[in-house]
Amino acid sequence: MDNRQTLLTDSSDAVLLAVRVKPRASHTRIAGQRHDRVLVEVTAPPVDSKANEAVCRVIAKALGVAAGRVTIAAGARGRDKLVRIAELSAREVVDRLGLEDPGR
């Protein structure tokens, strides 16, 4: 059985994006894509949800949406997370983040 997470899951009102977070990095940025996850580096420490908040902000900024439309859906206490992005389609997320098309 394949236990790999799908990079993007599309629903009627949101997209779930699989991310891998590196807290306490030297820069806050989207650092690329590795297989089934988007790599997000944040300078914030993984304490008191600071890293999670930074992840939501950097993804929202990259997508050009309000920060409130990006939330942690799963994995709040680990490095591997599912980020919920409201009101965008999977195609819009792929295009705006410059991701490798998961349909290929």
Q: Which CATH first-tier class would you pick?
A: Alpha Beta
Can you give the helix content as a percent range?
Answer: 10-25%
What's the tally of helices? 2
Radius of gyration: 13 Å
Percent strand equals 25-35%
Residue-averaged pLDDT: 90
Annotate the secondary structure layout.
Elements: E1 8-10, E2 14-22, E3 29-34, E4 37-41, H1 50-63, E5 70-74, E6 80-86, H2 90-97
What distinguishing features does this structure have?
104 residues, alpha+beta, Conserved Hypothetical Protein Mth637, Chain: A, six-stranded mixed β-sheet, 21% helix, 34% strand
Kindly describe this structure.
The two termini are 21 Å apart. This protein has 104 residues and is α+β, with helices and mostly antiparallel strands. The longest helix is centred in the middle third of the chain and has 14 residues, at 50-63. The radius of gyration is 13 Å and the shape is globular. β3 and β4 (37-41) form a beta hairpin. The chain has a single domain (8-97), classed as Conserved Hypothetical Protein Mth637, Chain: A. It has two helices and six strands, in the order ββββαββα.
